[in-house]
Amino acid sequence: MRGCSSFGSHCNCTRGQPNTDGIHVTDTQNIQISSSVIGTGDDCISIVSGTQNLQATGITCGPGHGISIGSLGSGNSEAHVSDITVNGATLSGTTNGVRIKTWPGGSGSASNIKFQNIEMHNVKNPIIIDQKYCDGDKPCKSQSRAVQVQNVLYQNIKGTSSSSEAIQLDCSDKFPCQGIVLQDIDIEIGGEKQPKLCATMPK
């Protein structure tokens, strides 16, 4: 699909719907999502392989699992996502905030991604890159390939975390994250001014 716009959507899929994404975008180019209120049992917005040039603005998310790119690369598949901007969002009581998740063993890339001007209220995992995503208990089975995550900007993200880890960057040992920028991040944990940072980055 090319050239699609969604304005003023309201989605409430929370009751008895544990695996329901609010808006799911795949194999689509030139997309605009704006002024949307989403509560769900899974991702408020999920952006998966084949998505290019997506703009999401004025998003209200919660409850749910936040705004996710991925999962990408399941079953050793190739996946590509690029030129994604989430600008202006409020997340309340969600499991995650803004997340990129890729499976070990996949290939391809997630690149040129911006998360800007976002408010979070009592979000469990505000900022996550997880290149070791898998079903079941971790650690995942070691793989020789990974989806490359590169050129990601987190800018002006503020609010509160309900867990002790406000930022988690869990990157692949063989295909580490590249070009990750965090700017003007102010996330409080239990009233503390500075967030605790969990960053698993290869040396």
What is the name of the CATH class?
Answer: Mainly Beta
Please count the beta strands (DSSP E, at least 2 residues each). Answer: 15
CATH-level-2 architecture: 3 Solenoid
**Domains, number:** 1
Helix content range of the residues, please? under 10%
Shape designation: globular
Q: Give the full name of the CATH homologous superfamily.
A: Single-stranded right-handed beta-helix, Pectin lyase-like
Query: Approximately what portion of the residues adopt beta-strand conformation?
Result: over 45%
CATH topology: Pectate Lyase C-like
User: Which blocks of ≥5 consecutive residues have pLDDT under 50?
Assistant: none
- Counting helices, strands and paired strands, the structural category is mainly beta
Termini Cα gap: 40 Å
Rounded radius of gyration (Å): 16 Å
Largest sheet: 8 strands, parallel
Number of helices: 0
Q: Element order, helices and strands? A: EEEEEEEEEEEEEEE
Whole-number mean pLDDT = 87
List the helices and strands and how they pair.
Layout: E1 2-7, E2 10-13, E3 23-25, E4 29-40, E5 45-47, E6 52-61, E7 67-72, E8 78-92, E9 96-102, E10 107-123, E11 125-130, E12 148-161, E13 167-170, E14 178-189, E15 197-200
Plain-language structure description:
With 203 residues, the chain is mainly beta. It has one domain: Pectate Lyase C-like (3 Solenoid), CATH 2.160.20. The chain is 0% helix and 61% strand. It is globular.
List keywords for this structure.
secreted, 203 residues, 0% helix, 7-stranded parallel β-sheet, Pectate Lyase C-like, globular, 61% strand, mainly beta, 8-stranded parallel β-sheet
